[in-house]
Amino acid sequence: MALDRWIALILAGICLAYGYTAWFTMDANLAPFMQRNPIWPSTFPKILSILGLISAFIILFSFEKSDEVIGDIDYRRLHEYKLGQALMLLGLMVIYALSLRPIGFISSTMGFLILGSFLLGERKWPVMVLVAFIAAFTIWYLVSEVLGIYMRPWPAFISNMLGG
Amino acid sequence: MLEGLLIGLQTALSFQNILLVIGGCLIGTFIGMLPGLGPMSIISIMIPVAISMGDPSGALILLAGVYYGAIFGGSTSSILLNAPGVAGTVASAFDGYPMAKQGKAGKALTIAAVSSFAGGTIGALLLMIFAPALSSVALLFHSSEYFALMVVGLCAIAAFTGTGQVAKALLMTVFGLIMATVGEGTLFSLPRFTMGIMDLQTGFGFITLAMAMFALPEALLLVLKPKEMTDGGGEIKDLRITKKEAKAIAPVIGRQSLQGFFIGVLPGAGATVASFLGYAVERNIATKEEQDDFGKGSIKGLAAPETANNAACTGSFVPLLTLGIPGSGTTAILLGALLALNVTPGPRLMIDEPQVFWAVIMSMFIGNLVLLVLNLPLIPYIAKVLSVPRNYLIPFILFFTLMGAYIGQNNATELLMLVGFGVCATALRFANYPLAPLLIGFILGGMLEDNFARSMQLYDGVAFIWERPMTLGLLVIAVCLILLPTYRNKRAKNKKTDGPDNI
């Protein structure tokens, strides 16, 4: 089974779960005055779940035959591409998201930019550190000072040391 | 109209707004040149900046400048490197790159700049004429017609973007609508489908979704499959075009501005279709000798897609500003930004907030002028951006994607969702599912349900579908839009398989 049909199967599963909620569980605690309304919060989702299921099944059972088009990347030969790098960068993004609050914006952004170029094969450390620092500091300055959205720049203990 | 023009001029010519146009065009040009970053990614990256400005006309002026800049920047990399940064400029590479290889890069860029300018300006003139007319018709619409019109728009987008695979595009549209129902609904403000997660109470963030659908997969594809970046051919000189060449491309520009604009107005078509169609039409009506030149560095072949894609960009603002229905992924993102700024585009926009409407149109003229004046002398320097090493470029693209989602919400959970959706979107791209319908469905979902609920309440049921002939007509059109391409595909397939048997 080709990837697009697997995806259709997964999406059909999501539609089923969504539809089950809309048809059977959602209306349970609807207040009586709401029930007199011609439209309930579940009406629109009910329609959507049916439409979604129909179109997912059309793809799943290939009612609409189409020629196989290979886009920018052929997923069957995914291992021939730089999959490792891509996965590591995704992991790095997750770590960045989790570290933003505890270690502060400037430190985590510098870490992200330096490690990001390191993963892609860059080894010129002084340039990497300099570029990362300038970028992180400029963005922090723009967002925090110019736009006025507070972001903690350093880890808590350093901020305390710097006096605020 | 004259009054409106003056209001627009007054707003657009304020010092701050002129700076915004110039800044937007420059940013758009720079980022648009980078292969893999299209106008959709750039605009979604710029949205947090635009929203935090708080002034809707300023924000829209900035984003429109970025949009034009991105299309122009995309043609620069198409011409110099044969690496289009934007789908809409792929056709420009057909003749632009051969010209650059013949050492006429400067001339090619000048032609691109001049035809973009002409296409954009004529497009803006047409917008000025057609938008008010369309919006006065749209004022007669009822909420049930709005509902039907949005259904037509969504169906048209599904039918046009999913080339030959309408079911996929339809499934993506429905999923966009499904995602829009997560969070507190407008009806009674009851939380729906949140699975008890507090962060989902307000629904999915639209910027997060836009980033995850477009910017992140593009960046991941750049990592997975490094594009060969060939040298741009060194020096760029000889920017002038001769009188004879100008005479040759003038009719092309005239025709393609009109054609491009009207293609841009259609939902789902947009700059990409306009540029390919423009190229094809000009090639077919050219004389025999000129036809042989196409693909080998014909100036007509470069001017046609360049004019058409800029005119189409302008045309795609018509449904956005008059009906509040975006025709393309890019205008859908613009619509999201406008809603975040508390401006609801639609027929009442011209009455309630004329300064926004007219300022945008005036800034289109200014933006086109800025692109012409600033970019022509800057071309040789702008092309230097292309030499930023990939090892630095990709982490920065990823970082800006993350920042865009973070600044809007100030919530790290949003970043995890971004990565999750980004991975899903990449998988969908591998399987050739179009992603623009998903985002358009997501953005229109709320409005679609609102109008549906309002008409249900007014008519106490679904009676509005047959009691209002206009609604019924529009819904019939929507069904035809979905069924027609499927039927035609099937007939074409049958003919193909029957063919050999008959012989």
Task: Please characterize this protein's 3D structure.
The complex is a heterodimer of chains A (164) and B (503). Chain A has 164 residues and is an all-alpha fold. In chain A, 67% of the residues lie in helices and 0% in strands. Chain A folds into two domains: 1-61; 81-157, no CATH class. Chain A has seven helices and no strands. With 503 residues, chain B is mostly helical. Residues 229-234 and 499-503 of chain B have low confidence and may be disordered. Chain B is globular, with a radius of gyration of 23 Å. The N and C termini of chain B lie far apart (63 Å). Chain B has one domain. The interface between A and B is large, with 70 and 64 residues. Chain B: Residues 18-439 form the DUF112 domain. Chain B: Keywords: Membrane, Transmembrane, Transmembrane helix. Chain B: It comes from Pacificibacter marinus.
In short:
The complex is a heterodimer of chains A (164) and B (503). Chain A contains seven helices and no strands. Chain A has 164 residues and is mostly helical.
Topology:
The complex is a heterodimer of chains A (164) and B (503).
Chain A: H1 3-25, H2 32-35, H3 43-60, H4 83-103, H5 105-119, H6 125-146, H7 156-162
Chain B: H1 2-12, H2 15-33, H3 39-53, H4 56-81, H5 90-101, H6 105-138, H7 143-161, H8 166-180, E1 183-184, E2 191-192, H9 206-224, H10 243-265, H11 270-285, H12 288-293, H13 299-315, H14 317-323, H15 329-340, H16 349-352, H17 354-382, H18 390-409, H19 412-430, H20 436-459, H21 464-467, H22 469-502
Antiparallel strand pairs in B: 1-2
